């Protein structure tokens, strides 16, 4: 049997080859059959460029039907797809290329040549045979050290997670997905697109999220997947209400915690209860509130079928209700970090993956997250690691030292804020520091605010007190 996930997807969408698959914000819709042929054309081009099974293909391109075709082409030929946030700067991308050692890299500037080649290529309609445990994708995730790690995901990881979500979220004929997420992360690429493809669903494929477009398209959709910021922005618009959602059957939220207040306002305004779920790049989706049954605000629900979680305090299993570190085991758990066996080992304990997230499980088995063991910031559904920003700040002229924390933000959930101590060699302004960082880091990582301090608060051991900075910004 071919363990290639592409084979599974193709078998599912084959029930409706002439259905519109991607309906983009600009340009004509693409049917499943057309997408298959386009994907096969890219498969031919990549094979002509000597991309072999197991080779990495680093991709940093804008969201478009061709971007989806390229993703599927990589699966199809057995290559390992490595998506990158389009906001990353050249120097950030250099790191990933160096680390992933890809056979080829595709960036926006390469797209004209690549699509022209695909236009004339003889489609390669095959599907490379892969074992279920072969790698399908590698998703970069940062860590407390500031150095990104490639989380290696197998065909089986992708397939089992997609099939499970398709089933438990009750995808059915007639479902139409409103897709407003970027496609370089697990959420938009895997959770949203895989479930839709398994269902041969039509996808309203928005290049970027705007409230206006969402209000216009929601009446045609039945499912939307978003991060809390999307729902906050919709609720800010008085036009959003029951009429807009009349055709909808499911709103899911993830990638960042949703406050109980937003959850409640949403229900009050629309009559719909958002289904919150929990996942991460290393595991895809881990838990979900139930489709039927109570969706409890503030919790992320139950482990997915086949997935186990436990909450540990050091080496001891926590009793129900007690807070500890969440561990995960199951077919969704990744194969390890690319070329970083030490980090892979560190992240495992007795065969369980140690998420680093802090939470508790109640007597019914429902997980509630309390935060992170580290000081990671989640801004608008994107993870930012303070260490990476501090290292960049400390390199700036005139900076003696810095500390970066996440502070509450009404739209993004958390915002990145930096505290900087000058070394006195030159005059420093927050604005100049932000401009310098902007040349090196993706904009979402650049602190929204930089405050100059005479010194950083430290405890008696000399360790910077981030709690004090968070509490008295
Ligand atoms: C954009 N900006 C952000 C930002 N997004 N700043 C901080 N945090 C963010 N998340 C910056 C822009 O660069 C711009 O800066 C300014 O904010 C205003 O931008 P905007 O036009 O308001 O932003 P917008 O394009 O609307 O993007 C906001 C957003 C986007 C929420 C739609 O961030 C988004 O799509 N988030 C979802 C991310 C996601 O898919 N996460 C899934 C990870 S997978 P300037 O200064 O240039 O003007 C995962 C696993 C799981 O976590 O469980 O799902």
Q: Give the tally of structural domains.
A: 2
- Strands, count: 25
CATH level 4 superfamily of the largest domain: ANL, N-terminal domain
Task: Estimate the global geometry from the Cα principal axes.
Answer: globular
- In the predicted model, the low-confidence regions spanning at least 5 consecutive residues are none
Multimeric status of the protein: single chain
First and last CA, distance:
58 Å
Tell me the CATH architecture of the largest domain.
Answer: 3-Layer(aba) Sandwich
User: Which structural class is indicated by helix and strand composition?
Assistant: alpha/beta
Bound molecules: malonyl-coenzyme A
Q: Portion of residues in helices?
A: 25-40%
Radius of gyration, CA atoms, in whole angstroms: 22 Å
